[in-house]
Specification:
Rieske Iron-sulfur Protein, 3 helices
Length: about 200
């Protein structure tokens, strides 16, 4: 279902929920205005009506938030990120890393997100087939900032001892997901450029 259809269905659901509440209130107000006696429901029925009204409002609010969030995310996702200069090749020796910032998070919502660029040791680079790799520096467990440990050939989270391998995969500890990868490019004049999140360009 595309975004327009979701908006229509969401608006219809919210409209029906509020319409039901308004009809219920209008009937009781009209009876009272004519001097009639509004039947007094038993306590359980009264509670059920209140819960139904509250649930209708919560459903409408939740549906509206989901649609708004999805719309904003889709709009941000269509914006092409400008390349971000990270470092020069000669500024990083093998086994060193540097932090940098992208202006959007991995889910493509706006906000500064800390990342890390690693220049691998020759043996690691030969194993992975690339000399430079870049990932989110935010641990997928509770958001602590991770560190590259060249002596252990891994990426380490100091908060709860989570470990990622040099491909970004979670291999030990509580992190539930790999580190999101950043696409990079090394230019002819020796600049390392971050192009954006892998799979989102």
């Amino acid at each position: 279902m595309d975004l327009a259809a979701e908006i229509l269905w969401g608006a219809a659901a919210a409209g029906l929920a509020f319409l039901g509440i308004l009809v219920y209130l209008a009937i009781h107000r009209r009876i009272a205005a004519r001097g009639g006696v509004v039947p007094e429901p038993d306590p359980l029925r009264r509670l059920a009506l209140k819960l139904a009204a509250y649930a209708s409002v919560l459903v409408a609010v939740g549906q509206g938030w989901d649609l708004l969030y999805g719309y904003l995310t889709s709009v941000v996702g269509r914006v092409r990120l400008e390349p971000v200069r990270v470092a020069r090749v000669d500024e990083l020796g093998p086994g060193q890393f540097v932090y940098f910032t992208l202006p959007v998070h991995p889910d493509m919502t706006p906000g500064d997100h800390q990342c890390m660029l690693i220049r691998l040791e020759p043996e690691e680079a030969a194993s992975l087939g690339e000399e430079f790799v870049a990932y989110s520096a935010v641990c997928t467990h509770l958001g602590c900032i991770v560190q590259y440990k060249p002596d252990q050939d891994d990426i380490y989270c100091p908060c709860h001892a989570g470990i990622f391998d040099l491909s970004g995969k979670n291999v030990s500890g509580p992190p539930p997901r790999p580190l999101p990868r950043v696409e990079i490019e090394v230019t002819e004049d020796g600049e390392v450029i971050a192009l954006g999140w892998a799979g989102e360009r």
